[in-house]
Amino acid sequence: MGERTKEGMDREKRYAFFPGCYIPTRVPYMEKSARIILNRLGIDLVEMKNASCCPDPILLKGIDQRTWLAMAARNLCLAEEMGSDILTLCNGCFETLKTANTTLREDSKLKKVTNEVLSKIGREFKGTVQVEHLIGILREKKGALKGLVENPLKDVNVAVHYGCHLLKPSRLLKMDDPFYPLVLDELVEETIGAKSVQYRRKMWCCGAPAMQRDEELSLRILRGKLQQIRASGADCIALTCPFCQIQFEMGQLLIKRRFKEDYNIPVLSISQLLGLAMNINPTELGLTLHAVGAKPPLEKMGFKV
Q1: From CA 27, how far away is CA 155, in angstroms rounded?
Q2: Is the pLDDT score of 6 beyond 90?
Q3: Residue 291 neighbours by CB under 8 Å, 6+ apart
Q4: Does residue 60 fall inside a structural domain?
Q5: 239 assigned to some structural domain
Q6: Domain containing residue 207: CATH number
Q7: Which pTM was predicted?
Q8: Structural domain includes residue 273
Q9: Domain boundary among 87, 108, 133
Q10: What mean pLDDT do residues 169-179 have?
């Protein structure tokens, strides 16, 4: 392989890009920062025209698994027609698309039933593409990423949050050990150069799924995590899931209103943190758009804000 330039001129791979619903509408900076990182790695993202919701791995799946599978299979068919593997940034989309892809490949009866539904719109699931998460690509390209780092984030303490849908069901997703994962910790320490702090309740859910039914329960779960993160001395939280991003940011504002507690812990996507280590301007990475300002850790990283 030829030497990779900083601008990613030696294009390595193209993926069918599946941004999902939340990222474009609620947290577009997750997409912007990921596109910058992937471009520098020589990876092209090609839009999936007419893609739908993944659909989400909780609500619809719990109501009607066959409909859930058919909707996911239609999205997989779009990538098959493009001849490209899927890359997604969202943990929920990753769980849905990869679970559906593997399930339909392994279960011929479900595949037949699903294709009967798809035949009504002139499509057929074949099982010819893979589903990848941004984190899996970054793990694979750690060596190349390290070569792009100009500003190692030394002395910055980062609390990583994995979320529920990146790791489980582990038999299908195969991202990391679901109880003792390391992929985010290693990216933070070995590539970005910061310290990944350990804290109690690290593997807890952020409480986002409960928000739709019981706001107080949701906030109490989040509050428990925030208390432990603050106790760890973390300068910021790093995560990969847009649903968790919204919960951690907006949840802090709701907790301040309800419990009179001000945590003020900045929440960054792992791609934003990587971008900062590459010395990319915080504004370009969307760090001015966050509900919880990131000024203290940015100053610690050497950025003028």
Answers
A1: 27
A2: no
A3: 249, 250, 252, 253
A4: yes
A5: yes
A6: 3.40.50.11810
A7: 0.94
A8: yes
A9: 133
A10: 96
Phi-psi region of 155 (alpha: psi -120 to 50; beta: other; left: phi over 0): left
Is the same domain home to 154 and 293?
Answer: yes
Calpha distance 30→271 (Å, rounded): 7
Direct distance between the N- and C-terminal alpha carbons of the chain, in angstroms, rounded to an integer: 39
Residue type (1 letter), 5? T
Q: Are residues 114 and 162 in the same domain?
A: no
Establish whether the linkage from the previous residue to 282 is cis, with ω within 30° of 0.
no
Domain that holds residue 257: 150-300
Q: What is the pLDDT of residues 105-117, one digit of tens each?
A: 999 999 999 999 9
What residue type is 20 in one-letter code? G
Backbone angles phi, psi at 96, to 5 degrees: -60, -55
What are the tens digits of pLDDT across the range 205-248?
999 999 989 999 999 999 999 999 999 999 999 999 999 999 99
Asked whether residue 127 falls in the same domain as residue 155, the answer is no
- Residues facing residue 238 across a β-bridge: 160, 268
- Indicate which CATH number applies to the domain containing 50: 1.20.1050.140
